[in-house]
Amino acid sequence: MYRIGAEELAELKKVIEAGDLFKINGGLQESRRVEDKMKKLFGAAYSIFMTSGHAALTSALVALGVGPGDEVIVPAYTYIATAMAVVAAGAIPVLAEVDDSLTIDPQDVSKKITPHTKAVIPVHIQGFPCDMKSMMALAERHGLFVLEDACQADGGSYQGRRLGTIGHAGALSVNFFKILTCGEGGALLTNDKRVFERALIYHDSSAIAYFGDQMSDFETEEFCGSEYRSNELCAAVMNVQLDRLDGILADLRANKAYMMQQLADACRFLPSNDPAGDCGTTLALQFDSEEAARRFAAAEGVGGVLPIDTGKHIYKYWTPIMKKRGALHPLMDPFRMEANRGIISDYREDMCPQTLERLAKTVYLWVDPNDDRAALDRKIALYKNALK
Q1: What pLDDT, in 10s, does the model give residues 81-110?
Q2: Pairing relation of β-strands 268-269 and 46-50?
Q3: N or C: fewer beta carbons within 10 Å in the chain?
């Protein structure tokens, strides 16, 4: 969480005083305003505000028609929710390496494609844009869907387009740890009306048929779904947060650029697929060995983090996936479904060595958009001393 305060409190007060906390209402309609604002801000034809990034990923996969008998390629470095969304849809996650940018490696993705591959999920981890040009070209050649996981990259871009709007669908997250926050929440973005219709039905247990005229122009018939509908309190906070987005990103990017300028002669930075579109939340330094990375990260005043230490963001710590426990009830478990027989991955802790090596030789330094030049200079002095 970067910035939150009086404006959000004022908007919450309006909602509470109005007494309409349910998403569908004839009053303030905060949720509708959020979705309209997202469409305009991100440049997407459709948006659905919901309970989490995981909810958005799962709803998108279902809407894309992913299910039993399908494989979905995901990077070996992403939060476990990405892979769990694939399992929630009844499909099997296939792991691909990340490249030097620590985002999914298009060359390795091409090696993992089989006749069962239905989709690929490039993840813009830490606000680092994936190589979407290569990913979209690869997907077009093989007839695959692309679902962008932009849950750590709210507002970022690639070649001038907002992340989450380049593929067939995209997912955002706005929980406490993200660029924008309402405590917990997410959103689905798409330019495909059929994907929007299916995702809207799925995320609301078909209940949208009973509230207002949401299905008045739908071609998709109702089907059973889940319950990922958000509410007016979260939406009230998000309406203010969305107004803050570009200011937060501008300050993050400016502070990261200044840090890089001052440190350029002292270290090696992680390469970027689009430096201008990078969200600026994280300055990543590359080292020749894990020992050197750890020495720098532990130096006085640095406070660095090696991404290899970030737990369930690393595939080998995805315990339910690695142990193939896809659901509590065995008949609901994709790893035991007859339709998936023969496409179950052989998950091993050493299956993506390139990813593990790169994560172990990288150190993250966090960028604070609220730092002034004096605060930045103090941090930079500590970093330079540790890099000597």
Answers
A1: 999 999 999 999 999 999 999 999 999 999
A2: unpaired
A3: C
Distance CA 121, CA 320 (A): 19
Q: Phi/psi of residue 216, each to 5°?
A: -60, -35
Whether the model pTM is above 0.90: yes
Catalytic residues: 178
Q: Which domain holds residue 76?
A: 6-241
Domain annotation covers residue 286:
no
Q: Which residues pair with 361 in a beta bridge?
A: none
End-to-end CA distance of the chain: 32
Say if CB 48 and CB 57 are below 8 A apart: no
d(CA 316, CA 347): 9
- Quick one: what percent of the chain has pLDDT higher than 70? 100
Residue pLDDT, tens place only, 296-348? 999 999 999 999 999 999 999 999 999 999 999 999 999 999 999 999 889 99
Residues paired with residue 95 on neighbouring β-strands, in sequence order: 74
pLDDT of 206 higher than 90: no
Closest CA to 370 of 275, 262, 286, 244: 244
Rounded alpha-carbon distances, angstroms, from residue 97 to 8, 60, 338, 357: 40, 23, 28, 11
Q: Is residue 68, in this structure, part of any structural domain at all?
A: yes
Q: Is residue 93 part of a domain?
A: yes
Question: Among candidates 86, 49, 83, which has minimal Cα distance to 66?
Answer: 86
Write the CB contacts of 19 (distance below 8 Å, at least 6 apart in sequence). Answer: none
In a domain, residue 64? The reply is yes
> How far is 86 from 110, CA to CA, in rounded Å?
19
Return the bridge partners of 188, or none: 48, 171
Q: For residues 14 and 26, what is the distance between their CA atoms, to the nearest angstrom?
A: 14
> Counting Cβ atoms within 10 Å, is residue 109 exposed (0-12), middle (13-18) or buried (19+)?
buried
CATH of the domain at 93: 3.40.640.10
SS3 at position 292: helix
What are the C-alpha distances in Å from 256 to residues 245, 275, 283, 373? 16, 11, 7, 11
Strand partners, 123: 149
Instruction: From residue 79, give the alpha-carbon distance in Å to each of 9, 85, 152.
Output: 31, 11, 10
Do residues 3 and 244 lie in contact, with contact meaning Cβ atoms separated by under 8 Å? yes
Number of domains, the chain: 1
Q: Which residue has the tokens 């089907």?
A: 223
